[in-house]
Amino acid sequence: MPKRHSGKTFIIDLEKVNRLNSNGCPACGHKFNLGDTAVWACGAWEGGARVIHEQDAVYDHRTNGFIERKCYSAKLDRFP
Fold this sequence. Notes:
With 80 residues, this protein is α+β, with helices and mostly antiparallel strands. It has helices at 14-20, 69-78, and strands at 9-11, 37-42, 50-53, 57-60, 65-68.
């Protein structure tokens, strides 16, 4: 079971579903559902951190934050 980073993850509630689902998850493109676990993460998009599904994120101990999984993988490929 992956290590949880308490305080950094949160559960999607009705207010967040209504606010976030106009655009969906920027990492995977799917809509959020009630009860989904989400995080604030940086990614390849402009404008700073955004809310994405936790399974689409990787926790980076160096930055003490989450990074979109695809972005993190690309970073590792460039800087092994």
